[in-house]
Design a protein that fits this description.
P-loop_NTPase, BrxD, five-stranded parallel beta sheet, 443 residues, 5 strands, alpha/beta, globular
């Protein structure tokens, strides 16, 4: 764990506090509050380096609700950006999934690409900057070599054309260059819309850009591979694709829909493990049920179960982080104490003289949480952190209030989301179409 810096910018401080107060992960300032999980972070950093070296990676980050999966994924995203990777990320939802036939897969792709980030644009919306960098470098190189710009662009885009659908990717990128040369903002915008998967009909794409295909449900994965190649030829290290809330696949009521998504995930896993893709990595976050349930989870698909099963020798506290699955280890009480201390430091903007509570308040707060919800207070720390931030907010806004008086009033409920949404293995879901399909009333 790295120490929080002595000073924290006011904007960064407010963003962190607002996010934690709402029980969500802040988009900035994560190093100020990160604790523990050094081994897991190290394993993912090696994956990022492998992507930059022309390899591929796939990881499933598994943990209970509130255990810190999203926080962990966002920290890895920031590390990838610092190492000159491009990242895209999206949450799965009922209308966004990896495989579909009604536009849900294209919706996931579009959301991910809209969230494209680079080191200089970590907040997202970086697609235009990536494409512009490719065009600018091509113009500069053409001037140095004294050759036509289009020739240089063709040379740069040659690797993309080797991918499925890559020819149209190259055609669209050249259309963006022509728009840039002619100051045709409409053509440039059309090219970016196509790259984001926002064209819904091939006729519209052909009219605007002269291409006969669009990014649709069937081509999402191939388009991500072409996008990874684009980031590489534009001068970046590679592409990291991050999908959160993978439990939404587990929740699908239709058995065939789940199977189709599992088959697409299997394709991604096989390509990454066999070295069939380059400069791309996938990081998918889900709950233990999403992975382990043998009726609805990934382990219900035999081919995935064999590839994602744990190392049988990693028992009795031993770990193996070389496989595709990373089971997010719970924070220890010591880790949580450091986390609360870091949050106190964020409130004080890095100035110890402005701490709202002394050290003994941290241990007293943890003891209070332990009495309320047991050891879940550090195993799934989301609600604990949220309550602590809210207590500090009251102290900050009401000078003279004693933390001892507030502590007895702090309610730290168990994380209800995990209780409501986690379904025990083998349990039935209302409307599940693979239940009772063979039942017949005897005559």
């Amino acid at each position: 764990m790295s120490k929080a810096p002595k000073t924290i910018k006011p904007k960064e401080r407010d963003t962190i506090i607002q996010a934690l107060s709402a029980g969500v992960v802040p988009r900035v300032g994560l190093p100020h509050i990160q604790v523990g999980r050094a081994a897991e972070i190290g394993a993912l950093v090696r994956d990022v380096d492998r992507i930059a070296d022309g390899g591929a990676a796939v990881r499933f980050v598994i943990g209970d609700y509130g255990a810190g999966k999203t926080f962990f994924a966002n920290l890895i995203r920031l590390i990838a950006l610092e190492r000159k990777c491009v990242t895209v990320h999206a949450d799965l939802a009922p209308d966004r999934r990896i495989h579909a036939s009604g536009g849900q897969a294209r919706a996931l792709y579009s959301e991910a690409v809209r969230n494209m980030a680079t080191r200089t644009k970590p907040e997202g919306g970086a697609l235009a900057a990536v494409v512009e960098r490719l065009v600018t470098d091509a113009v500069k190189e053409a001037g140095e070599r004294q050759v036509p710009v289009e020739k240089v662009i063709d040379e740069k885009l040659a690797p993309i054309q080797e991918f499925v659908g890559g020819y149209d990717f190259a055609t669209v990128l050249k259309a963006y260059w022509r728009g840039s040369e002619a100051s045709n903002e409409e053509l440039k915008l059309a090219a970016l819309r196509w790259l984001r998967g926002e064209f819904s009909t091939k006729t519209e794409a052909n009219k605007s850009l002269g291409v006969r295909t669009i990014i649709d449900d069937d081509s999402v994965y191939d388009s991500l591979k072409s996008l990874a190649c684009l980031t590489k030829v534009a001068g970046y290290a590679g592409l990291l694709v991050m999908f959160d809330e993978m439990v939404n696949i587990y929740k699908l009521q239709n058995a065939q829909a789940r199977k189709s998504n599992f088959e697409q995930i299997l394709r991604i896993v096989n390509d990454a493990l066999q070295g069939n893709t380059v400069n791309i990595g996938f990081l998918m976050c889900g709950t233990p049920q999403f992975l382990l349930d043998t009726r609805r989870g990934l382990f219900s698909y035999e081919a995935l179960q064999s590839r994602l099963a744990e190392n049988q020798f990693a028992t009795k506290g031993l770990v193996d982080l070389s496989g595709p699955v990373i089971n997010l280890q719970s924070l220890t009480p010591e880790d949580l104490l450091i986390l609360l201390s870091n949050i106190r430091t964020v409130f004080a903007a890095g100035d110890p003289s402005k701490y709202l509570v002394p050290d003994e308040a941290l241990t007293a707060f943890m003891a209070h949480c332990d009495r309320r919800i047991g050891e879940a207070y550090f195993r799934t720390p989301r609600t604990t952190v949220k309550a602590f931030v809210q207590m500090l907010s009251v102290l900050e806004q009401n000078p003279g209030t004693k933390w001892q008086d507030l502590l007895g009033q702090v309610d730290v409920p168990a994380d209800l989301q995990s209780q409501q949404e986690a379904v025990p293995e083998g349990s039935a879901q209302p409307g599940d179409d693979d239940e009772l399909t063979s039942f017949r009333l005897g005559t």
